Amino acid sequence: MPFASELVKGSTELLVLSLLRARALHGYELIKEIRARSEGNLRVGEGSLYPLLHRLEREGMVRAEWGGATGRDRRYYQLTPKGQAALDERQAVWRRHVRAVESILGVAG
User: Fold this and answer.
1) Tally of domains within the chain
2) How many CA atoms lie within 13 A of 4 on its CB side?
3) CB count in 10 Å sphere of residue 30
């Protein structure tokens, strides 16, 4: 059973920035990577991904370039230094959030 859509929506930006840390990806690759790495538990649709990517581009966190080795031009997104700084900050916040929730659930030692 996939996670509640609110959980996915709240973490999509963090997931996208994190995946773009390693290399430039196009939108469909991001969708596939999120689904594959989460073993199908996290699903992000085009209707929420592309507006997010466009906002991140406007805010200077990602840079987009057209390209494609397969003959189909695709827009590849790459993390910028500003995006890396935002990712570092969001990861720290996420980890604090997880620790707080785990302590309430009784999971943390």
Assistant:
1) 1
2) 3
3) 22
Residue 42 one-letter amino acid:
L
For residues 9 and 35, the answer to whether their CB atoms sit within 8 Å is no
Structural domain span for residue 53: 5-105
Identify the CA nearest to 27 among candidates 74, 66, 63, 69.
74
pLDDT in tens, 5-20: 666 667 899 999 999 9
- Give the CATH number, domain containing residue 40: 1.10.10.10
Contacts 24+ apart (CB under 8 A), 86-91: 86/17, 86/61, 87/14, 87/17, 87/18, 87/21, 90/13, 90/14, 90/17, 91/14, 91/18
**Residues 54-71: what's their mean pLDDT?**
89
Would you state the pLDDT for residue 10? 75
Angle between helices 5-22 and 46-58 (to 10 degrees): 50
